[in-house]
Amino acid sequence: MKRKLMPAFFVGPHLILFLVFVLIPTVYGIYASFTQWNLNSDPVWTGLDNYRTILFDSGSTFHRQFWNGLKNTLLFVAMSVPLLIVIPLMVAVALEHKKVKMKGTIQAIIYVPGLISISAAALIWSLIFNKQLGVSSNVFGSDAVWSTTQPYAWMIIIILTIWGGVGGNMIIYRASINGVSKDLYEAGDIDGAGPIRKFFSITLPSIRFPLIYTFVMTTAGAFNVFGQPLMLTDGGPRESTTVLMMYIRQLAFGHGDSIAGMASAMAVLLGVVILVISALQYYVMNRNAN
Amino acid sequence: MSKNMTISKYISYLFLISICAAWAIPVIFGLTTSFRSQTEVINSGFRLLPLEWIMDNYRAILDNTSTAPIVRWLGNSLYIAILHTFFVVVVISLTGYGYSRMKFRGRDTMFFVLLGISFFPPVVNLIPSYKIIDALGWVNTSWAMIVPGLAGMGNIFLVRQFMLGIPHELDESARVDGAGDFRIYFSIILPLMKPVLIVCALFSFVGSWNDFLWPVIVYTDVDKMPITAGLLLLQDIYGNYRMIGQLMGSAMLAIIPTLLLFFFAQKYFIQSINLNSGIKG
C-alpha cells in the first residue's frame, strides 16, 4: 500500500504544477481563441469568427495588426537567426586556432551579455544609440534619431539581439568542435587541405546535429521576440517594428477593454507558425545531412 | 610554423578582438556614465571615461523610494530568484528521481507525453496563465513569478538523462538493505545529482532574474515588481533622458547579481553543454 503511493509523492507535485500551469492554460488558450472574451466574464463561443476576422477581413484592425505583426516578426527572425548561427560559429572556429591565447577571457566577454536582462541591456544600448550622447552620432556622424528612423530602428534591435545571443550558441559550437576527432584533421593535413577546405569538409559535417539543434531552437526563440522592440523603439516608427507578441499583449492586457479572445487566436496562429517552421527546418536539414 | 598558420592567427585575433571590443564597450560606457553628472553627459559627447567621477547618481537611486524604488525592485528580484531556484531544485530532484529510479506503470510513457506537450509554443498559454494567477490571487505577488516556472520539463529532462547514465548499484544495494525510497533519494541520489542540480539552479536563477515578458504582464503595483519590469517603467519616468546617470546606474545594479554568479561559477555555465550530450553530437 505504502509503496504504491510513493511515486505519487515524488512525481505528483510536478504533475499538479504541470496540469495547472502548462496543460490547462494551453488547452484553455486554444479554446479561448474560438470565443469572445474580456478576461473577466466567461468566454462566449463564436466559432471561427476570430480566425476569419484576423485572416481575411481586410477592413478590420485585427487583420491589419496580425499581418503587420507577423510580417515584422518574420523580418526579425530572418535578420537575426542567420547572424546568431554564423557569428557564434566564426567565433568558435577562431577560438579553436592553436595559436590564439586567452581563450577563456575572450569566451567570457562574449558570453556575459547573454546573462543580462533585455531591459537592462536595452537601457545600456539606447545610450550608445542616443543621438546626442552616443556613438551613432558622435563616432559615425549619423544625423538620424536611430530609434525612430528606419532602417536604423531594425538595426539597433538586431544589434542588441546579436550581442545577447551569440554567447549561448558559441559555447555549444565550441564543445562540439572540441569533440570532433583530431584524426580527421590530421588526415586533412596529409591530403593538403587548407583551413577553409577543412572547415567545410570536416568541421561542418561533424557538428551537423548541434547545428540543426541551435538552428531550430534559435528560430523558435526569435519568434517570441518582444523585449527588444518594446524597450528600444516601442514598435515604431509607425508600427514598423511592432512584433506579434506586442499586439498580443496589447490586446489582452493593454489599456481599455481586454480583447483576450482575439489575442488568443493570434497566439494560436503564432504557435502554429512556430511549430510548422520548426518541423520544416528539422525535416529539411536532417534530410540534406543524410 | 607555416606561413598559412601565421596569417590565420592574425585573422582570428583581429576578428576576436573586434568582437570583444564591441561586446564590452557598451557595458563600460554605461558603467562610467553612471558616475557622470548630467551636465557632463550632455556636454562632453562620447567619452569612455568621465572627466569627474561622482557618486550622486547612486545616492539618488538609493534615496528614491517612491516613483522608482530601485532598491526595492532589486530586493523583489532577489527574493523571487532565490525562492524560485530553491523550489526548482526540490521539484526537479524529486521528479527526476521518480522518472529515473522508481518503478510504476506507464512511467516512461507519461514522461514522454509530458515532454511532448511541453514542446508546444508557450505563447498559447500566456493569457490563460495570467487568468490562473489571477484566480489564485497571485497578481502583484512574488508567487506569480516563483511558481509557474516550476512546471517546466526542460530541467527534469536533464536530470533524468543524467540519472540514466549513473549505474543503479548504489541504490539497489541500499534497497536490498531495506532502505525506502525517501532514504535512497535523500542520502544516495541527491548527492549524486549535485552536478546537474547546480547547473539547473544557476540557469533558473538567471532566467528568473532576467525574465521580462511575464513580469511586465503580472505586475502593475510599483512596489511589488522585479527590476526587469521596473527598468521599463524607469525608461518612462526618466524619459527624454533627463537623468541618464541614474538610468545607467540602475541598469548596472540590475546586472550585478548574474555577472557575480558567472564570475564565481563560470565553469558550470560553460560546461553545462556537456550535460546535454544530445546537443553536443
Topology:
The complex is a heterodimer of chains A (290) and B (281).
Chain A: H1 2-32, E1 35-36, E2 44-45, H2 49-56, H3 61-96, H4 103-111, H5 118-128, H6 135-138, H7 152-179, H8 182-190, H9 195-206, H10 208-223, H11 227-232, H12 244-253, H13 260-289
Antiparallel strand pairs in A: 1-2
Helix pairs in contact in A: 2-3, 3-7, 3-10, 3-12, 4-7, 10-13, 12-13
Chain B: H1 3-33, H2 38-44, H3 56-63, H4 70-101, H5 107-118, H6 126-135, H7 143-146, H8 154-164, H9 169-176, H10 181-210, H11 213-218, H12 227-237, H13 244-275, H14 277-280
Helix tally of chain B equals 14
Would you tell me which CATH topology of the largest domain in chain B applies?
MetI-like fold
Strand content of chain B: under 5%
% residues in beta strands of chain A: under 5%
Quickly name the level 1 CATH class of the largest domain in chain B.
Answer: Mainly Alpha
What summary fits the major beta sheet of chain A?
A: 2 strands, antiparallel
- The number of strands of chain A is 2
How does CATH name the architecture of the largest domain in chain B? Orthogonal Bundle
The first-to-last residue Cα distance of chain A is: 51 Å
Overall pLDDT confidence of chain B? 89
Helix residue percentage of chain A:
over 70%
Question: In CATH, what is the homologous superfamily of chain A?
Answer: MetI-like
Coarse structural class of chain A:
mainly alpha
Q: What is the radius of gyration of chain A?
A: 24 Å
Oligomer: heterodimer
Biggest pleated sheet of chain B: none
